[in-house]
Hints:
By secondary structure, the protein is mainly alpha-helical. It has a single domain, classed as NAD(P)-binding Rossmann-like Domain (Rossmann fold, 3-Layer(aba) Sandwich), CATH 3.40.50.720. Helices cover about 50% and strands about 10% of the residues. The radius of gyration is 18 Å and the shape is elongated. The termini are far apart.
Amino acid sequence: MRVAYGDISNPELLRHHGLDRAKVVVSTIDDAFLRGTSNARLIDVVRAINPRARIIVTAHGAEAARELLGRGAFACVAPPSEAASAYASSIREALAAADDEA
């Protein structure tokens, strides 16, 4: 697996890193942390350069995730939504372990 880092708002940098040959493009940062661009813009740029690439992006919630999927993302990770079930599971396990010790 080849990983490249750079300014995703710069299409020329993305071309330089071989975006036209990428099978999968992943953005692990939601729009709150991006400056001068967005995951929606990234989807548009990737589609323009490489329409076949599978794009996985990050959203700050379920509504944003639906919008990005509608825009052409292959998948969207929404940490605030997905973290809730992970925390709930961990809390249940911790409570069960505490009850076992009592």
